[in-house]
Amino acid sequence: MDTLKDDSGLRTLLTSAAEGVDEDGVDPTIARLHSLIAGFSDLKASLDENNARVEEEDVTEEKHDREMSEEHDRDMSEDDDEEGTFSVVIIGASASGLGVACALLQASPDLDVRILEKSDCVGSTFLSWPSFTTFISPSFYSNPFGPLDLNQITPSENGPQTFTTSQHPTGKEYAEYLQNLSKSKMFGDRCLESYITFGVDVSTIETANYGGGTAFNIATSSGTDYNARYVIYAGALYHLTCGHLTLLSVAQVQR
Ligand SMILES: Cc1cc2nc3c(=O)[nH]c(=O)nc-3n(C[C@H](O)[C@H](O)[C@H](O)COP(=O)(O)OP(=O)(O)OC[C@H]3O[C@@H](n4cnc5c(N)ncnc54)[C@H](O)[C@@H]3O)c2cc1C
């Protein structure tokens, strides 16, 4: 009761109750309750009205966002017809680049993906290993029993164990695994390798605008430019720190 500082309303109510009915024969307590209820009804009506207005504004805003996004998609797909423009460009055709390409194409086989690789083959970094260098992580032939080979890049195919003479693949054996996979892994009537452009050294990645949305412009040493809504850099940290690739104002693509 300490918190009931202003009790004048309550006093009035109790006094009215004690005095009984007024001269019109109406119990003042009941009359006051009626007026309170009427006040609440007004308040509720005004809240409902306000909620309806906010909902209407949300729907309009959502519609506007959807229209903008559709316009962006339309502009991008018109641009997709142009050579060198893709929804997704992946830089690097080695373990991580091919792995992420498989995951994307498995989820969406029609997705226009392009993998740009500066060397002339898949898994070139592994071919540069000395012949005595082997993987530390083991490759067991365990797929028939369920567990995955630790070194495989896609869960649905055989791992590098198919190409190894020991549990620890050499760089050459691992490159052979990647090369074989890129030829045999099919998405519809296309093999993974058909998504790769070899001999393309990416030099800069800049944000660019398409139909009010953000995308990327990818410049290469060959002079050919590529455009993409999403860029996945799979060129390894070594190439990022020691190579010449510059990432210019790379921003999250707004959708
Ligand atoms: C001796 C050694 C032993 C290792 N042992 C193990 C092990 O036991 N287990 C393990 O899990 N890992 C091991 N690793 C690490 C493993 O090799 C790397 O983590 C792996 O290669 C990374 O794969 P990646 O696809 O990210 O990069 P990478 O294999 O380096 O491939 C990057 C690709 O991107 C291309 N590229 C780079 N820059 C550009 C550009 N600007 N434009 C176009 N293309 C570009 C390159 O040509 C290359 O094909 C070992 C590495 C070494 C060196």
Helix and strand topology:
Elements: H1 8-19, H2 28-80, E1 85-91, H3 95-107, E2 113-117, H4 124-127, H5 171-184, E3 186-187, E4 190-191, E5 196-198, E6 202-210, E7 213-220, E8 225-233, H6 236-242, E9 246-247
The structure holds flavin-adenine dinucleotide (FAD).
Flavin-adenine dinucleotide is lined by residues 91-97, 116-119, 124-125, 129, 133, 135-137, 200-202, 234-236, 239, 243, 245.
3D architecture notes:
The chain is α/β, with parallel strands linked by helices and 255 residues long. It has two domains: 9-81, no CATH class; 83-247, FAD/NAD(P)-binding domain (3-Layer(bba) Sandwich), CATH 3.50.50.60. 40% of the residues lie in helices and 18% in strands. The chain contains six helices and nine strands, in the order H-H-E-H-E-H-H-E-E-E-E-E-E-H-E. It has helices spanning 8-19, 28-80, 95-107, 124-127, 171-184, 236-242; strands spanning 85-91, 113-117, 186-187, 190-191, 196-198, 202-210, 213-220, 225-233, 246-247. The strands form two sheets. Strands 5-2-1-8-7-6-9 form a seven-stranded mixed sheet. A two-stranded antiparallel sheet has the order 3-4. Strand 7 (213-220) and strand 8 form a beta hairpin. The radius of gyration is 34 Å and the shape is elongated. Residues 249-255 have low confidence and may be disordered. The structure holds flavin-adenine dinucleotide. The site of flavin-adenine dinucleotide has 27 residues, from helix 3, strand 2, helix 4 and helix 6.
